[in-house]
Amino acid sequence: QVQLAESGGGLAQTGGSLRLSCAASARTFSTYAAGWFRQAPGKERELVAAVSPSGGNTDYAESVKGRFTISRDNAKKSVYLQMNSLKPEDTAVYYCAAVYRVLLPTAVVGAAALYDNWGQGTQVTVSS
User: Fold this and answer.
1) Per-10-residue mean pLDDT for the chain, 128 residues long?
2) In this structure, are residues 12 and 126 in contact, taking their beta carbons and an 8 Å threshold?
């Protein structure tokens, strides 16, 4: 089991930026695929971005392509989400997730159901 702790959420204006961080307790975080998901009130949890264990492959929701960037630093056991050009529709609770993928270092995992480690979430609110 991996403990995940998100930070960096808060209030931003439309067009602004925020950077989310997720710190993992895993001994070998480089063997875990990771992702950022979000859930707005009354909506289902959705993928925002995902990154392979090696960090070499990424995937994004269409709604955030060109605005958000996912990255990871395995030495620091952390994954990040840089969010630029924020829109009010980006308002949600953002969750970090991780799943063990030691045999698939280049695999990106996009489905929430495949993740078995989740953080508590951090609120992002974008004002218009």
Assistant:
1) 95 98 94 97 96 96 98 97 98 97 88 96 96
2) yes
Give residue 36's pLDDT.
Answer: 98
Cα(91)–Cα(38) distance, integer angstroms:
9
Instruction: Using DSSP, state whether 119 is helix, strand or coil.
Output: coil
pLDDT, residue 105, reads 86
Q: Distances in Å between the alpha carbon of 70 and those of 2, 59, 124, 127?
A: 19, 9, 16, 23
DSSP 14-47: TT--EEEEEEE--TTGGGEEEEEEEE-TTS--EE
